[in-house]
Specification:
This protein is of the alpha+beta class. It is about 50% helix and about 25% strand. The termini are far apart.
C-alpha cells in the first residue's frame, strides 16, 4: 500500500477517520488521566475527613472555656482534700478534733516519719505528684464509737486508706464495752516542691 492509496482511502471515508482520531485521543486522555482521578479521589476523601475533624474541634471549642473552668474548680477541690506532711500541728489536730466528736480518748497519735514521705503500700502504683502521709493512732472508747469514727474516716473529705487495724477489749471491770483500737492510716498529701539546688 502506497501513500497515494492511503490518502485516497482517508478522503473516501472522512467521517470514519475523524471518529478514529477522536477515539484515539479520548483513549489517551483517559489512560493518562485515570491515575490522577484515583489520586484526586483519595485527596478529596482526606479533605472530607479533615473537614469533619475541624467541625468537631470547632464544636468542642465552643464548650472549651466552660470545661477549663470545670477542670480548675475540680483541681482546687482536689487540692483542698490533700494534706501537707510538713504541717504537723494541723495534721495531728485533725484527729484530736475527732476525739471530742466521737467521745474517744486518743492514747497514742503520731505522724510516722515526721515530715518525710512514707513509703507507699505495695498495692499502690508509684506516686509522682502526691505523698503518702502515714499516721499511727491508738484510741479508746466504746466499740460503737470506734466503729462510727472509722466509718467517718473512710467517708471524710480527705483521701484515707486504713492500712492496719486491731481492736482489743480493755481490762476495765467497770465498763466491759470499752475497747482499744490501733490503726495505721495512710492519707494522700501534697508533694512539696523540691528544694532548689
Amino acid at each position: 500500500m502506497d501513500t497515494q492509496r492511503l490518502i485516497a482511502l482517508l478522503k473516501q471515508y472522512p467521517l470514519v477517520v475523524v471518529c478514529l482520531v477522536l477515539s484515539l485521543a479520548a483513549g489517551l486522555v483517559i489512560y493518562f488521566r485515570g491515575g490522577e482521578i484515583q489520586t484526586l479521589e483519595s485527596q478529596a476523601e482526606e479533605a472530607e475527613r479533615d473537614v469533619l475533624v475541624m467541625n468537631r474541634d470547632i464544636n468542642n471549642a465552643r464548650e472549651l472555656e466552660a470545661q477549663i473552668e470545670t477542670a480548675k474548680r475540680l483541681n482546687e477541690e482536689l487540692t483542698g482534700r490533700l494534706i501537707d506532711r510538713r504541717d504537723l500541728t494541723r495534721n495531728i489536730n485533725l484527729f484530736y478534733e475527732q476525739e471530742r466528736r466521737f467521745e474517744l480518748k486518743m492514747t497514742g497519735l503520731s505522724q510516722i516519719g515526721g515530715t518525710s514521705m512514707a513509703s507507699p503500700p505495695p498495692y499502690l502504683p508509684e506516686l509522682k505528684d502526691f505523698d503518702i502521709v502515714r499516721f499511727s493512732v491508738t484510741a479508746e472508747g466504746s466499740y460503737s464509737s470506734i466503729v462510727r469514727w472509722l466509718k467517718f474516716l473512710e467517708g471524710s473529705r480527705y483521701f484515707i486508706q486504713i492500712g492496719e487495724l486491731s481492736i482489743s477489749q480493755l481490762n476495765d471491770p467497770t465498763d466491759r464495752s470499752k475497747v482499744r483500737a490501733s490503726v495505721q492510716i495512710d492519707m494522700l498529701g501534697i508533694r512539696p516542691p523540691e528544694p532548689a539546688k
